[in-house]
Specification:
Shape: globular
Number of helices: 11
Distance between the termini: 32 Å
Low-confidence stretches: none
Strand order of the largest sheet: 2-8-7-6-5-3-4
Largest sheet: 7 strands, mixed
Strand content: 5-15%
Structural class: alpha/beta
Length: about 350
C-alpha cells in the first residue's frame, strides 16, 4: 500500500498550504518541475529546431496519448491531445453536422466551458439548446435530441452523471470530464459515451494548456475536421490531398511543447507509481469524510456523488474563501451557486480536512 505521507511529500505546495483546489489546477509534483527545468535547459543548450528535437517531441506526444488512453480505457487510436476540456468540446460540436430541428440537451449544473460552445453551436447552426435539472437528464431525452452534452462530474456539486440511464435512452453522449479524469474511475466503454473531453492540468497535475479528447471510432466519421493542422496529417508532404491520421489524432491542432509533455508525463509517473486504484479510492474516501464532518457540524453541503468535490453553502463564499486562506487553506468559491468548493485529492491529509471542517 502506498504511504500517504510519502505521496504527499511529492508535492512541494504542501510544505506551506493545505491545497484543496485541484478542480481548478492540480498541485505540481517536484518531479514534474524538475523535468520541465531539465527539458528547457536541454533545448537552450542543444537547440529546439533540430530534427532530433522534433522526433523527441513526437515520441513524447505518442507516450502521452498512450498514457491517456490507458486512463480512459480505450485504444490509443481513439485519443487526441488537446489544449483543454473546452478545446475537446469545441472540436466535437464544430465537427458535427448540426441543423435546425436538432436538439442539444444539457443540465443546469454545467461549467461555462461547456455552455459557451453549446451557445455558439446554436448561433451557428440554428439547433436548440435545452437545459434541464441534473436528475432529469436521461428522462428529458426526446426524438429530436441529437446529443447530450454534460459533465461526468458536476463542477458545482460533485454529483456523478447516471451514465447507465443515458445509455438506456439510446442517445449520443459527450461528457465533459474536467472533474472526472484523474479524480474518479473512467472507462469510456462502460460509460457508453461517444466523446469524452478532459483536462490535463487538474486531477492529472499537468500544465495548463493540456487536455485529451476521446472520440469513439464508430462516431469518428460523423465528426468532420473543423480546423486541420500539420499535426492532423498522416502525409504532411502532400497537404492538399488532406490525407488525415486514421484515428482521433487527426483532431490535434498543433504539437505539444517539449516542456509541457515532460511535465505531463512526470506527473502521470508520480500518480501511476502511487497506483491509480489507491489514488482514486483514497481521494473519494477523504472527500466523503469531509462532507460527513461538515454535515455533522450543521453545514449545508450540496448533494454529491462518489467524487472528489465537496461544496457547501456560505452567505458570502468569496469572504469565506479569503478567511480560509488566512488559515492556510486553498479552496475556491463558485459565486453562481453561492458555495465554497473543496477539491480533495489523495495528497490531502485527514488532519487538514478535520481542521477545514472545524473552520467552515
Amino acid at each position: 500500500m502506498t504511504d500517504p505521507g510519502a505521496f504527499r511529500a511529492e508535492f512541494p505546495v504542501f510544505d506551506r498550504l493545505a491545497y484543496l483546489n485541484a478542480g481548478a489546477d492540480g498541485p505540481v509534483p517536484r518531479r514534474a518541475a524538475e523535468a520541465v527545468s531539465a527539458t528547457v535547459a536541454e533545448e537552450a543548450a542543444g537547440g529546439r529546431g533540430l530534427a532530433s528535437a522534433f522526433e523527441t517531441r513526437k515520441a513524447a506526444a505518442a507516450s502521452l496519448r498512450d498514457r491517456y488512453a490507458g486512463l480512459l480505457g480505450c485504444s490509443v487510436d481513439d485519443v487526441a491531445l488537446t489544449h483543454s476540456t473546452t478545446d475537446g468540446v469545441n472540436t466535437v460540436l464544430s465537427g458535427l453536422d448540426l441543423r435546425p430541428g436538432d436538439e442539444l440537451l444539457s443540465t443546469a449544473e454545467e461549467h461555462p466551458g461547456l455552455l459557451a460552445p453549446l451557445a455558439t453551436a446554436r448561433a451557428r447552426t440554428g439547433v436548440e439548446v435545452r437545459v434541464v435539472p441534473w436528475e432529469e437528464l436521461a428522462g428529458a431525452v426526446g426524438p429530436r435530441t441529437r446529443l447530450v452534452a454534460c459533465s461526468h462530474v458536476s463542477w458545482a456539486s460533485g454529483k456523478v452523471v447516471d451514465a447507465a440511464a443515458l445509455r438506456a435512452a439510446g442517445v449520443s453522449v459527450l461528457l465533459d470530464g474536467a472533474q472526472g479524469l484523474g479524480a474518479v474511475p473512467v472507462d469510456v466503454g462502460a460509460l457508453g459515451c461517444d466523446y469524452y473531453a478532459a483536462a490535463g492540468q487538474k486531477w492529472l497535475c499537468g500544465p495548463d494548456g493540456t487536455g485529451v479528447l476521446y472520440v469513439s471510432p464508430d462516431r469518428r466519421p460523423e465528426v468532420a475536421l473543423a480546423w486541420p493542422s500539420y499535426s492532423s496529417l498522416l502525409e504532411p508532404g502532400r497537404p492538399l490531398e488532406l490525407i488525415l491520421h486514421p484515428g482521433s489524432a487527426r483532431y490535434e491542432a498543433g504539437f505539444i511543447g517539449a516542456a509541457d509533455a515532460a511535465w505531463a508525463l512526470a506527473s502521470l509517473d508520480v500518480l501511476g507509481d502511487a497506483g491509480w486504484p489507491w489514488v482514486l479510492d483514497r481521494a473519494a474516501t477523504l472527500a466523503a469524510g469531509l462532507a460527513d464532518r461538515l454535515r455533522d457540524r450543521g453545514v449545508d453541503v450540496l448533494d454529491r456523488g462518489p467524487s472528489t468535490l465537496v461544496s457547501w453553502r456560505a452567505p458570502d463564499p468569496e469572504a469565506a474563501v479569503e478567511a480560509l486562506a488566512g488559515h492556510g487553506f486553498a479552496v475556491r468559491s463558485i459565486a453562481a451557486y453561492g458555495v465554497v468548493r473543496a477539491s480533495v485529492g489523495a495528497w490531502n491529509s485527514e488532519d487538514e480536512l478535520e481542521r477545514l471542517a472545524a473552520l467552515a
